[in-house]
Amino acid sequence: MPPDHRSGFVALIGKPNVGKSTLLNAWLGERIAAVSAKPQTTRTRLLGILTRPDAQVIFVDTPGIHKPRTKLGEHMVKVARQAIPDADLVLFMVDVSELPTQADMAIAQMLANPSTPPVILVLNKADLLSPDELEAHAAAYESLGHFAGAERISALMGKNLDKLLEMVIARLPLGPRYYPEDQLTDQSERFIASELIREQAMELLQQEVPHALAVVVEEFKERPNNVLYIAATIYTEKESQKGIVIGRNGSMLKQIGTKAREALEPFFGRKVYLDLWVKVRKDWRRDERFLREVGLIGAE
To answer: For residue 277, what are the domain limits?
Structure first.
């Protein structure tokens, strides 16, 4: 390890659906964080670890900061807020294709706290605007606070991600590697599997059903011939939602299973046999005991 090796923790902060998980996955080259067009896809804190010969960056992907309406929502916002003081650097990510909202302004105000680490403003979705629009929108965001730097990117298209990464590494302190160089995340394979299944379910389902879904991996076993067996339960809050997830003659559940396998097999590098079940757990997002049982919130 070179004497000028840098390392540190970088918190990804922003409102829901601005592209935090897309950026993390693009940097790591693996889909370790659930990504969906639906807001509030990320529900818990997830570490993504990027290791190079000269640096190790531990990204803390957090849930989008929003006004919570459930126990799960309260936990999501708490997790995001707690990540800030523990970080060496904060990436405040915004959707520059739209002008700042009240939510963006509230987050900027929160980050203005003197105890907050240095903040880099990440202007995502810059590819969706004309040059003149981009200048106007970027100026509106840059006026929200005093930032250590700012970069215009497209996480989805991969634009300026290397430039942003160099900006991040340059601001990290000198330090050792905290994790082995081949480790991508602090989450278990079971957790990654549940996230990939949930991502596909969210993409295929509409309206309020996605936020009423929890995926719990019940079995995760090696089988002969390098086959991975995964049994998972998709929980809904209502019987009507269960019917939508299953679909006519099981058609929707079959689609979810097919899409999930297509995501799971390249990640784990082997054939996956996937069993999916659907159960109702009434108002599970407000049920603190259930949230603890399935690991969506931890012990206080």
So the answer is: 189-293
CB 1: neighbour CB atoms within 10 A?
11
Do 91 and 223 lie in one domain? The reply is no
What does 46-68 look like in DSSP terms, one character per residue? EEEEEEETTEEEEEEE-PPP---
Looking at the chain, the whole-number percentage of residues with pLDDT higher than 90 is 53
Q: Report pLDDT digits (tens) over 178-207.
A: 998 888 887 778 888 888 898 899 889 876
Please state the separation of Cα 246 from the chain's center in Å.
26
User: Is 23 within a domain?
Assistant: yes
Q: Are strands 6-13 and 46-52 parallel, antiparallel or unpaired?
A: unpaired
Residue pair 31/267 in contact by the 8 Å Cβ criterion: yes
> How open is the CA angle 135-137-138, to the nearest 5 degrees?
65
CA–CA separation, 8 and 178 (whole Å):
9
Collapsing DSSP states into helix, strand and coil, what is residue 297? Answer: coil
Strand, helix or coil at 233? strand
Any domain includes 184: no
Count of CA atoms in the C-beta half-sphere (13 A) of 169: 19
Say if residue 208 is in the same domain as residue 113. no
- 1-39 per-position pLDDT tens digit: 788 999 999 999 998 889 888 898 899 887 666 554 444
CB–CB of 291/240 below 8 Å? no
Q: Quick one: 164 and 223 in the same domain?
A: no
Please name the residue that has the structure tokens 């269960």: 242
Contact 27, 160 (CB under 8 A): no
- 177 assigned to some structural domain: no
Q: pTM value? A: 0.66
Going by the DSSP 8-state scheme, the letter that residue 286 receives in this structure is G
